[in-house]
Input
Amino acid sequence: MAVETSRKRFEYERFGPLIALAILFIISAIASPYFLQVQNLLNIMRQVSYTGIIALGMTFVIISGGIDLSVGSMVALVGGVVILTLNWAMGVFGAAAEAWAILFALVVGILFGAGLGALNGLMITLGKIAPFIATLGTMAIFRSMALYIGSAGVFRSQSNLFPELGMGKILEIPNPVVVFIGLAIIFSVILKQTRYGRYLCAVGSNPKVAKYSAIKVNLTRFISYVTVGITVGFSAVFLSARLNSMSSTTGGSNYELDAIAAVIIGGTPMTGGTGSIFGTVIGAITLGIINNMLNMLGVSPYLQGTVKGIVIIGAVLIQRKRSQ
Amino acid sequence: MGEVLIKTSGIAKEFSGVRVLDDINIEIEKGEIFGIIGENGAGKSTLVKIFSGIYNPTKGKLFFEGREVEIKDPIHAKAIGISLIPQEFNLINELNVYENIFLGSELTGKGFLAKKDMKKRTRELLKELETTINPDEKIERLSVAQKQMVEIAKALAHDSKLLIMDEPTTVLTQNEIKILFDLMRRLKGRGVTIIYISHKLKEVKSICDRVMVLRDGIMISVTGTVELDEHEMAKRMVGRELSQVFPEKTEPSEEVVLEVKNLSVRGLLKDISFDLRRGEILGFAGLVGAGRTELAEAIIGIRKKEAGAMKVKGRTVEIKSPNDAVKNKIAYLSEDRQGSGILISFDIIGNTTLISLPAYSRILINHRLEREKTQKYVDKFNIRAASLKTRLEFFSGGNQQKVSLAKSLDPEPEIFIFDEPTRGIDVNAKREIYWFINELVKEGVSCIIISSELEEIIGMSNRVVVMKEGTLTGILEGEHINEEEIMLHATGLKGVA
Output
């Protein structure tokens, strides 16, 4: 009986964010002649890729029924560590092996991100602290650590090659965009095609049922926090490579909001249990286009937050209407 | 004929174009206890949800106290005197009795809560119901039966003329059911009308004046219970002659597959020892709170064992998590279907393969294999669903239970613990489950059945373990498996406690 409606709703969930993006895209194209220029579109993609990459990991965390507020501060701390590691490694490996030093710093950055994520995960699973509280705590701790290590200034890299990683392109597509899309495909496969993805949804949907079904609930949730840490690692590496530096004060600030917003606009409910990586990518791009349009139309930057906020609230309202 | 309280004229209800209720014409009199029976999905709940304002009828008219009414929502229903007492109680655990009774309609004096008046009124109400519940007691400290009393008191506080009870006795013990029935008769004497929905036909016969049979949304008959025996009720519900309810018992082998020795769980279980043979059905009887579910949870590693040992097929095993249980081929079908059995936001496939998912994936999940296997269960258990992608929240209780069964069965267990396998499902689905369990034991699977329905325990088990307050009071065999023996052990009048 109610089967038909369920199918309809399922389709909405899948295509709703895409339709919204398409409408936004058309409006933007009409409003500004520059919008459709390839360079502008690639710019938008590059701008959204830093928070977009984190939003991929955030999707996993939110599906599992959790949240991670610490990702913004984590970007600053990981970025700082990446640059310090790079500077150190260049000294050790010698100038000739600069590429190896960069690779080394990249690996360290990703592992360090994973480690910070593991810290969050341990507090939440073994420590049984509510995710909101635990990551609110580490949000303060990570930022403070970055400020302390960087003396509240900017971590500057001594490498001339490092910016190549951040500015470079593969087939005319900026490197961070390639990473964003590549990771999105991998994450989507993990979510839809592997056991872990199924377990994530099960745990987020009803942890008790998951437990009775022989699913390792704590391990599943723990891995989701490590995963978001890894995405922060990627984001921090490419962000610091682009700037060849990382600010301990403003680096990654408000990234948690943009990442969470991308997930929500993409149709993943805050209550968890289900979600889509495709939706999150759409959500991230939607946010990017809004920013881009407001800039091009000369809207005060102070008002951009208002528009973003309205879009987030609107997205949730539409989802709620549909689920009723 | 007495005065008519509620009357329906051609009531019909459709969901997305599918008719789930069609042309219902009934007149229920003041002070009548009116039973509604039917299989799951017959439309019983839909009908009473129309009465209580949760659904609007697609067609037809509703008359209450002689006037045509359009009940907008549950608040409106309550205001005109219709109260629904749902299966899952709507009480707030953290508040106490009187606060719950007056929730949303608090008495006030000079802008402040008139606690004294509310307590006094609550005491009066509870006294009328002849219970000894303290108005100041927190809801969480009450037993299930007491909570139900509070729900009824809440309905009476609003001067309800029509009380609708949806499966009120599923959670009650025999004694509590007797108290409830006494109360219903007293309410009837005061002119309160009661609509009573139940799967328990014996109870319907004993308490109701008239009974309506629904089948597939259609009113089959409205008959005085004097003229209708339980067999005839069941026949009308399913629309054909019902054959034997329980399959013939099979003889288990001598081989012991599960041995539990001196198992204890802190504060819950003490010194439980029993064994289970290959192909045996071992019934677990006892009153609510005897610790049977807790025992099952200890066996599958959900609860921490304080002491004791377990052997599976002669080998000592340590089961510390459901994962260990699955590895040792032990399955558990939970009594709390939606709480710990199935994921209602998942489809049939996702539920069926939830435990056995490793068998369907190396790195990537083999979706085709999943689909094929699930289809087999759908065919085997006669699961009625539009598609394998339908989410379980749209399923009836019986169909949900079958999916839950498929899920526990898919890892191919050798020991299967059924906890209240037929709770809240209709006669036909029950019978299907009994036959299925019988098929399992014929294949050499060993089963434990925990049930509060003695008939089920007696009809199915080779041996019966009786428990009382966390201890084992007896293991009954052969001719000792009867209602009297079981109750004597369950209440501790017989056996070692």
